[in-house]
Amino acid sequence: MSNLISLKSDYKERIVPALQKEFSYTSVMQVPVLEKIVVNQGIGKATQDKKLIDTAIEELTLITGQKAVATHSRKDISNFKLRRKMPIGVMVTLRHQKMYEFLERLVRVALPRIRDFRGIESKLDGRGNYTLGIQEQIIFPEINIDNISKILGMNITFVTSAKTDEEGYALLREFGLPFKNIKRNA
Questions:
Q1: Residue range 62-71, pLDDT digits in tens
Q2: Cβ neighbours of residue 127 under 8 Å, at least 6 residues apart?
Q3: How deeply is 15 buried, as exposed, middle or buried, from its count of CB atoms within 10 A (0-12, 13-18, 19+)?
Q4: Rounded to an integer, what distance in angstroms lies between the CA atom of residue 146 and that of residue 121?
Q5: CB environment 91-110: b (16+ within 10 A), e (fewer)
Q6: Radius of gyration for the alpha carbons in the chain, expressed in angstroms and rounded
Q7: 8 A C-beta contact, residue 124 and residue 130
Q8: Phi, psi of 130 (to 5 degrees)
Q9: Among 21, 66, 78, 140, which is 20 to 30 Å from 91 by CA?
Q10: Which of 150, 137, 167, 126 is nearest to 45 (CA)?
Q11: In terms of C-beta density within 10 A (0-12 exposed, 13-18 middle, 19 or more buried), how is residue 131 classed?
Q12: What is the DSSP letter of 163?
């Protein structure tokens, strides 16, 4: 609980003034905020093995601390043996308290556990949002490696209120995301 309070207060006490100075904002309300974190796993093999979805839901719920939900296909694709409304993935949308807790664990514990880790790419989507691809769910300490049936990757999307990539990058950098090139060529 103290980590959560420290991350929220860190945003208010350190990050807001730093971004205000860096971008010459006249009001605190202009400073971008982290609105939500969406964790998503696509499971293509779920068309053959229905148990993969249940396992993925359990694992993602453990990792994020919030109940994961199955995502379903929108249309039929016969080449992939896919029917409309079949479960093909799982996702969780984190906001407020759970979002800060997850961000803290991701930056402090999970990312440093990646083998040969040298930082993450700094390519944003053009609107100040960032998606991080993780190859293996076993980097999270909540996952017991002995109980894993299949190694699954995931996408973690950080949705900000930033208007530009430069503002979004600065916000996420201040939150402690370890980008490869700290000095950005905008």
A1: 888 888 887 7
A2: 162, 163, 165, 168
A3: buried
A4: 30
A5: bbbbeeebbbbbbbbbbeeb
A6: 18
A7: yes
A8: -135, 135
A9: 78
A10: 150
A11: middle
A12: S
> What pLDDT, in 10s, does the model give residues 7-35?
777 788 888 888 888 888 888 888 888 88
pTM of this structure = 0.76
Q: Is 119 left (phi over 0), alpha (psi -120 to 50) or beta?
A: left
Helix (H, G, I), strand (E, B) or coil at 135: coil
Report yes or no: 172 and 147 within 8 Å, Cβ to Cβ. Answer: no
User: What's the CA gap between 142 and 122, in Å, rounded?
Assistant: 27
Sequence-distant (6+) residues with CB within 8 A of 59 are: 137, 143, 152
> How many alpha carbons fall within 13 Å on the CB side of residue 116?
0
Residue 148 CB partners (closer than 8 Å, separation 6+): 137, 138
- Amino acid present at 2: S
Q: Which two structure tokens, joined as six digits, stand for 46?
A: 């779920």
- Encoded tokens for 89: 């993935």
Q: What is the DSSP string of 80-96?
A: GTB-TT-EEEEEEEE-H
One-letter identity of residue 120: I
Are the beta carbons of 180 and 122 closer than 8 angstroms?
yes
DSSP reduced 3-state for 158:
strand
